[in-house]
Design a protein that fits this description.
This protein has 161 residues and is mainly beta. Strand 4 and strand 5 form a beta hairpin. It has 3 helices and 6 strands; from the N terminus they run H-E-E-H-E-E-E-E-H. The mean pLDDT is 93. It has a 6-stranded antiparallel beta sheet. The chain has one domain: Thiol Ester Dehydrase, Chain A. Helices cover 15% and strands 39% of the residues. The protein is globular, with a radius of gyration of 15 Å.
């Protein structure tokens, strides 16, 4: 039995579910969680998460020093991490969630230091160990990035033996 996933969880608690650590942990807090209608499927499960962007982020030293913006790959990773939380079920074994493909990614506005990203993800397809997640990021109520992300889930236990 895994850790319960509940609104209000902060990064240290989320790290009991997601394997990401500094400097690659991009979910600071879980704001909302809604499970899908069918307990046997992840479809319809939704997450709203928060990431505070600070000037201290490691990628700002090189992207771009004269006008720091969050790189698109980091926005994709933040959405994927939120999607992994949306797909998480306490009764499942611990899993690594790996990006399989990204479709229809759009980066509409730059995300800069001082912004608070609201990351939303919904599982729209669940097939065995593959899932499709519809994700987007808002800053101050404006959509700044979006993507459909397909991910593979791999149980961790066999790798530990």
């Amino acid at each position: 039995m895994g850790v319960p996933l509940e609104p209000g969880m902060r990064a240290d608690q989320i790290q009991k579910i997601l394997p990401h650590r500094y400097p690659f942990c991009f979910v600071d807090r879980l704001l909302e969680r809604k499970l899908g209608p069918d307990p046997a499927s992840r479809v319809g499960s939704k997450i709203v998460a928060l990431k505070n962007v600070t000037i201290n982020e490691h990628f700002f030293t090189g992207h771009f020093p004269h006008r720091p913006v969050v790189p698109g790959v980091i926005l994709i990773e933040a959405m994927a991490q939120a999607g992994a939380l949306a797909a998480y079920r306490q009764e499942d074994p611990l899993m690594d969630v790996s990006i399989a493909f990204i479709k229809d990614a759009k980066f509409r506005l730059p995300v800069q230091p001082g912004d608070t990203m609201i990351i939303k993800a919904e599982v729209t397809r669940d097939r065995k160990r593959t899932m499709l997640m519809d994700c987007y990021i808002e800053v101050e109520g404006v959509r700044v990035a979006e993507a459909l992300i397909m991910a593979y889930m791999t149980p961790i236990e066999p790798l530990l033996n």
